[in-house]
Amino acid sequence: MKRKLDANDVPSTEAPEENNKDAGEPSFEDLNLDPRLRQALIKENFTKPTLVQSKAIPLALEGKDVLARAKTGSGKTAAYVLPILQTILQKKSADPSLKATTGLILVPTRELAEQVQNVITSFSAFCGKEIRSVNLTQKVADAVQRSMLSDFPDLIVSTPSRVLANLGNSALSLENLTHLVIDEADLVLSYGYDEDMHALSKAIPRGVQTFLMSATLTSEVDTLKGLFCRSPVTLKLEDKEEEGAGVSQFIVRCAEDEKFLLIYVIFKLQLIKGKVIVFVGDIDRCYRVKLFLEQFGIKSCILNSELPINSRIHVVQEFNKGVYDIIIAADEQEVMGAPKPSKKSQKADKEDAAENKDDSDEASEEESQKTTRPDKRRKVSGKDKDYGISRGIDFQNVACVLNFDLPTTSRSYTHRIGRTGRAGKAGMALSFVVPSEQFGKHRPTSFPTAKYDETVLAKIIKKQSKLGQEVKPYHFEMQQVDAFRYRMTDALRAVTRLAIQEARAREIRQELIKSEKLKRHFEENPEELRQLRHDGELRSARVQPHLKHIPDYLMPAKGRKGISSEDVGFVGIRKTNENRIRKARDRNRGKGKGRKAGGKVDPLKTFNRGRPQK
């Protein structure tokens, strides 16, 4: 190997910088994991551990309790799954006949439970039948769940309420538990699991190794730390980029009805390209926006707590595969900025949306909201209390987060924009802000939380500036889109309250049917996606075919560049599908192939019966 020469042309004894850099960076080989786990990591394209993985895994393998704060998408799931699997494999090699539930992973939502279960399945792919895991949040019969637990799976993934229910009917035993994980720990109590967690703390044996994983360290995390941990090692990890870094953040100040005008123009003229998550305030708002976009032939999926769990998981999976480009999501955990209910009412109101308790530096923000906002927690029997969209779910390659309705806290905003700009990729966050003087001017499109947009925006700008990020105005030339206003008004007129109610009921019926098909092993026919697509037209609103096409006279003189000064783009939202067979047929017609030019076709003369068989 060539040695590096110094300024005097003398060979240097120092290793090259690149080698030093590689030597300083840990690898999965350095963690002394089981070869079967390393093989699975290679298959899943895990090349180097992330910061939280390189710090937490060695501590976990030493048997220490770990409390880790790391941003969303930093690899926290692998940081606790790998050491637990390593420990189980070591115990199985020492005692092959061992059958006991030794690991329990608690998560706040069913979507996150499914995601963790998939990670466990991937990492244990080469372990044969030595690793068995069960997801208790699956909606199966109690008898089926008891049968699954009777085989003593090594790992259980669940929400706290499901674990407690199975402990109550003696289907589950935790007497041999050695590992406990509470993922998204700052959300578990906020989602109404306060009493459940206190009950579990009495049922879990003493001396269990505990992992608390969280994006923020709040009072909820301190409570769980006191209940379950023994002098944990606290890791406050910040990667080179803070939450929201790599994300270009923009705001547009507009009237309430102009939100609909802008989202129409943005998607129809492809001003923003790539996969987009549109956050709205509640479930009705989901259907209002979807029905509005349908008027213009723009397809989208809906994601909210009323839909069956199988449908929600399938929507996320297909979105990650690129089947869908637009998801309209109701971020219901912070609807109306509702204060956290008292302990006495938590049990009765678990189906309600609970406001996430803010960080200590935002405590005053919460208090001011409690005094200025009405305590309206919407009770809807069809809601799933284990639902959450802005946290935990692994959305891949999201180009843009569009805050159609601004969240009620700066903390919620940070978590929302964390859906984009992940894994070193760039992303964009665009938020619509209604000025206070414009609120209530257009009642059909008004939303209650918009009254506080200006106050919340000031806190968002302040918090993002602390993180070194800038929230910039996104300049739309509104004069250029004035020609589209009458179309927007016409479309909104068709999206009535009755149409929204019918669409909501119809969507639930359709998704229940699809959910049953998914439950009956949809993987047997993976190509038959058409009947299970989630972006079909609801057609509850009055259909106006002329709105789906933009005539040339409506287009701005300068084209798309005349509307916006920003040029943001990834991959086009819509693919231009050309029918090659039809084009070839038209070309052949022009050449006169198969017929006489200008004349009619005589079927008797053009018929070719082929050569007779011998």
TrEMBL record:
InterPro entries: DEAD/DEAH_box_helicase_dom, DEAD_box_RNA_helicase, Helicase_ATP-bd, Helicase_C-like, P-loop_NTPase, RNA_helicase_DEAD_Q_motif. Residues 346-357 have a biased composition (Basic and acidic residues). Keywords: ATP-binding, Helicase, Hydrolase, Nucleotide-binding, Nucleus, Ribosome biogenesis, RNA-binding. Residues 57-235 form the Helicase ATP-binding domain. Its EC number is 3.6.4.13. Residues 1-30, 337-384, 577-614 are annotated as: Disordered. It comes from the Eukaryota. GO terms for biological process: gene expression; ribosome biogenesis. It is an enzyme of class 3 (hydrolase). GO terms for molecular function: ATP binding; hydrolase activity; RNA binding; RNA helicase activity. GO terms for cellular component: cytosol; nucleus. It catalyses: ATP + H2O = ADP + phosphate + H(+). Gene3D superfamilies: P-loop containing nucleotide triphosphate hydrolases. Pfam families: DEAD (PF00270), Helicase_C (PF00271). Residues 246-479 form the Helicase C-terminal domain. A motif (Q motif) lies at residues 26-54. Residues 582-598 have a biased composition (Basic residues). It is found in: Nucleus. Belongs to the DEAD box helicase family. DDX56/DBP9 subfamily. ATP-binding RNA helicase involved in the biogenesis of 60S ribosomal subunits and is required for the normal formation of 25S and 5.8S rRNAs. This is RNA helicase. It comes from Aspergillus sclerotialis. The lineage of its organism: Eukaryota, Fungi, Dikarya, Ascomycota, Pezizomycotina.
